[in-house]
Amino acid sequence: MDKQTLSFQAEVKQILHLVTHSLYSNKEIFLRELVSNASDACDKLRFEALDKPELFEDAPNLDVRVFYDAEAKTITIRDNGIGMSADEAVAHLGTIAKSGTREFMNKLEGDQKKDANLIGQFGVGFYSGFIVADRMTVETRRAGASPEEGVRWSSEGTGDFEVETITRAERGTDVILHLREGEEEFLSAWKLKSIISKYSDHISLPVLMPKTKWDDEKKDTVATDEWETVNKAAALWTRSKSDITDQQYQDFYKQISYDQEAPLAYTHNRVEGRSEYTQLLYVPAKAPMDMWNRDKRGGVKLYVKRVFIMDDAEALMPVYLRFVKGVIDSADLPLNVSRELLQESRDVKAIREGSTKRVLGMLESLADSDDAEEREKYARFWSEFGAVLKEGIGEDHANQERLAKLLRFASTAAADSSQSVSLADYVKRMKEGQEEIFYITADTLSAAKNSPQLEIFRKKGLEVLLLTDRVDEWMLSHLYEFDGKPLQSVAKGGVDLGKLQDEEEKKQAEATAEAFKPVLDKLKETLKDRAKDVRTTTRLVDSPACIVVDEGDMSSHLARLLKQSGQAAPAGKPILEVNPEHALVKRLDGMENGNSSFDELAHILFDQALLAEGGQLEDPAAYVARVNRLLTAA
For the whole prediction, is pTM greater than 0.85? Predict the structure, then answer.
């Protein structure tokens, strides 16, 4: 065939114009598409050769090769796949038979025109070369044809292309990109290798590039005649689990996460049904530095039919599982899926729900394992990610019950300070007649352990959970009960131990409160600007007083957290509870009316209770002065 000049199909002209003038947000996408096309050509040869093995000619080993010429400013993507005849080159490179092309162009012209991921739509990927090239040349020969039936196709990406017959000894295709001015960054072995590693590691064929060596004369690396494989040449997640070793799973995790430490656990599954996808998900052993940045992109890479789409598909995993790393490969999503489409897609919702359940199942298997080593892994997980997992209690109501079983806390019953007590453990140890799960929130573990509000619970041998994470107060606003047992703060409301307190104790407390009423009235008057109420209590054993709030009010701990974060906490006064059996409180009872020392001691009791609860004094100097006067008088 002599050289012919032909016109592109009308739709191709529009696509070429848009590709050249609009797609520039992620230029490196061109290499992904052309390597993917080359891999497809090899797959087609392998399929056709099942019936016609002679198509392999004298080269049965299939591969894709990528190399560049810095002086000529060209990049070549070569495959030894099925190749094209002259008619096929005209048909495949000059027209688009794919239905939906109009929809693709409408999207490309709209708000998403700068999103180069759209170029991945089948039948259009070849034209992505014009993102970086002002001319493309294709040299090809179909498998089984004679060397004289080779074809050269070339175009500058405008309205026309040229086709002519050439002699080509090898079957397959060379796609040669003549880079436009300003795209020289791609004339680098390191750059091309990094793009191939990022986008084409999953290609089942080897992607080869020339080995390089240092040239002292040129003061640069130069290509050698040897070739090396630059991709892993296998999509790990597409292989059978029985064919993959634990070491291979770990190596893959390190490759996608840039983590040097092995993962704590992983799950690999193929899901079939309304949505078909494969998931390979990992739980890291260590929390990253930006764990508490809720705007951080997710760690799950999205592939569609083994084609890489994006490496931070946060829509595939809820925010409270943002520490999960891995790969999800969908068979149903379109290649041109965007972040906006991910948010709206029913298939993505099904993938998200399925993947969430899979991760929770993986954590449950660690937490509930009979193997001590597995349970130790969960303890390590909890120390790193427990506070983040608690966010799910309020964000994922569908899985709230499962998440509640995974929670771990420090406790007054634990021998050490580790967060190792589950709610199920607590319920099993509840005393006969106990109807509530008791807890206390504080800034630190020592503050929680030593809180005066625990004294009656410690005396009666009642276990109290010690909650010290900043997220705990928010979590508790969504978690009201577990296994039918309500959660009750020991720092809210009056102490009502119900069946755990005998009638004699209750009568004695009532009598004491009645006898102490005159002192309570004086305390209420003295502290009216600081305390909502003053009352006697049975919760104190060794301490003279403590601060509590009403059942429906915001806890003092949460109010402090809001203040520390710059938010306004609702204005409200706490309740002062006093221990009428304590010597300091009895001293108040013996003071005469109008005694100034009464006011001094009343304020000291309130300030001490506030400090013991973890609060801050509005006027520390006044407190110190009062204590000094009291000590001097003593």
Answer: no
